[in-house]
Specification:
This protein is an all-alpha fold and 146 residues long. Helix content is 75%, strand content 0%. α1 packs antiparallel against α3 and α3 crosses α5. It is elongated.
Length: 146
Amino acid sequence: MAISIETIKNLLEYLDAEIRIIEKSQVTREELDEKENIDFTDATKRRMQVAVEIVINLAEHIVAGLNLGKPEFARELFPMLVKEGIIEKELSEKLQKAVGLRNILVHMYRDVDLNILADCATAGLDDLRELAKAIYEFLEKNSKEN
């Protein structure tokens, strides 16, 4: 399977849109904790889930397109991207934690730690941007090689 540049670019645009919406919400720990803001908290959870799903889809598409293997778990995708030189190890570790948050949000393994959610919805967005930048650089590099 080859990498579909169009698919990757569409996912990157979708990720950018999600990041902008989350940023616009100006998430704070205090707001997430207020009982009357349950809709805001739920919307933040959903937006973060969607953003991380996009990140997983991007990684899956690249891993499959480069025939890097078939990871059993989503968090295993990112070390594969490190090995391929697409992202740095530190970013891989952060993205693996984001997948952990996504798993908690999707499967409701336990109550979501609102401190972690607030951190992901603020500082964690930089990690998502960093991944997007790395993927754009990867696409640019590969388009010049082909």
